[in-house]
Amino acid sequence: MRVLVTGGAGYIGSVVVEELQAAGAERIVVLDDLSKGHRGAVPPGALLVEGSIADRRLVAETCRAERVDAAIHLAASSLVPESVRDPARYYDHNVAASLALLDGLRAAGVARFVLSSTAAVYGEPDASPITEDFPTRPTNPYGETKRVLEAALGWYAAPYGLSFASLRYFNAAGATERNGEDHDPETHLIPLVLAAARGERGEVAIFGDDYPTPDGTCVRDYIHVSDLAAAHVLALRALPAATAGAPGSGRVYNLGTGAGYSVREVISTAEAVTGRRVPARIAPRRPGDPAVLVASSERIRRELGWQPRKQDLRVIVADAWRWLETHGRY
Ligand code: UFG
Predict the structure, then answer these.
(1) Span 96-118, mean pLDDT?
(2) What is the pLDDT, as a whole number, of residue 274?
């Protein structure tokens, strides 16, 4: 495998690179503009190309020079509230720039593609857990831009011979020995809760306690970033090699553990793991938050043999805590 990883200097991308190295990939090329990623997250042995995915020429030339045969595309904007405030940014980064990337890949003959997609494509689901057959009705521009990109891949597959897998992530969390979450600003629950446990922030705001859930707070499916990253390698390996003139095909997979935890449960787990108190207060609901988002990942388990190794929330939180205590920042 000779793989281009866009966004490979970011939180999930850096762990995807670790998994590719562990799987013995011959060449790993990270394409990242470092707007959110970190130079220090790219390990020795992987090539960092600093630039934009929207730069078709750069993409094509890099892929030709490095003889890339597959791409994993993680570079994107991914914050729901920001997407509501500034949808143009999301259409630009997640749709326009991604289509340019696909042009560059096509020019270089790269016909295997793994997309970082999201549970946000489902919007407010009618039932739980969510399977891939549920209707996609995003309730915010972030989810919509990923839905649009998935649809484009579907149309590209046959005429361009593109084979793709779209991975719909639920809530990525946790850390490895080397890589963890270092966002600025940080908006995700687990790092915010752990920062509060370290006394680095005031109280955690619990966004709503009147949802139709057992304790009134939102329920999410937290998946360990290493389990998530491992799925990319499995999905990539399962993609057929390009044959000139042959139509491509696509698969969509949910990635979660199937277990849901409420915001309050995350806070109490963090208190148990860290041995510290996490101060919290109830705040108004955050617009666009579905009450419950829990994945059925039966399809990827069945078809690709994916098996999460770290599905216990205590392990996920403990790994995030260890990274924060030992690294904290890049
Ligand atoms: N939450 C709080 N207080 C906070 C932060 C979050 O109560 O300070 C709550 C949220 O309301 C939500 C839960 O904690 O109920 C998780 O929130 P995150 O912001 O950590 O994650 P989201 O579920 O909003 O979104 C994440 C990714 C999205 C992706 C989505 C898919 O950021 O990109 O998972 O499920 F689309």
Answers:
(1) 98
(2) 98
Mean pLDDT lowest among 70-74, 78-82, 240-244: 240-244
What is the model's pLDDT at position 247?
84
Per-residue pLDDT tens over the stretch 277-296: 999 999 999 988 899 999 99
Question: Residues with beta carbon inside 6 Å of ligand 1?
Answer: 78, 80, 118-120, 170-171, 187-189, 192, 204-207, 218, 220, 263, 286, 289, 293
How far, in Å, is the centroid of ligand 1 from the Cα of 102? 29
144-161 residue pLDDT tens: 999 999 999 999 999 999
Q: How far is the CA of 294 from the centre of ligand 1 (A)?
A: 13
CA of 174 relative to ligand 1 center, distance in Å: 14
- The verdict on whether 142 is a catalytic residue reads yes
3-state secondary structure the chain: CEEEEECCCCHHHHHHHHHHHHCCCCEEEEEECCCCCCHHHCCCCCEEEECCCCCHHHHHHHHHHCCCCEEEECCCCCCHHHHHHCHHHHHHHHHHHHHHHHHHHHHCCCCEEEEEEEHHHCCCCCCCCECCCCCCCCCCHHHHHHHHHHHHHHHHHHHHCCEEEEEEECEEECCCCCCCCCCCCCCCHHHHHHHHHCCCCCCEEEECCCCCCCCCCCEECEEEHHHHHHHHHHHHHHCCCCCCCCCCCEEEEEECCCCCEEHHHHHHHHHHHHCCCCCEEEECCCCCCCCEECECCHHHHHHHCCCCCCCCHHHHHHHHHHHHHHCCCC
| pLDDT, position 202 | 87
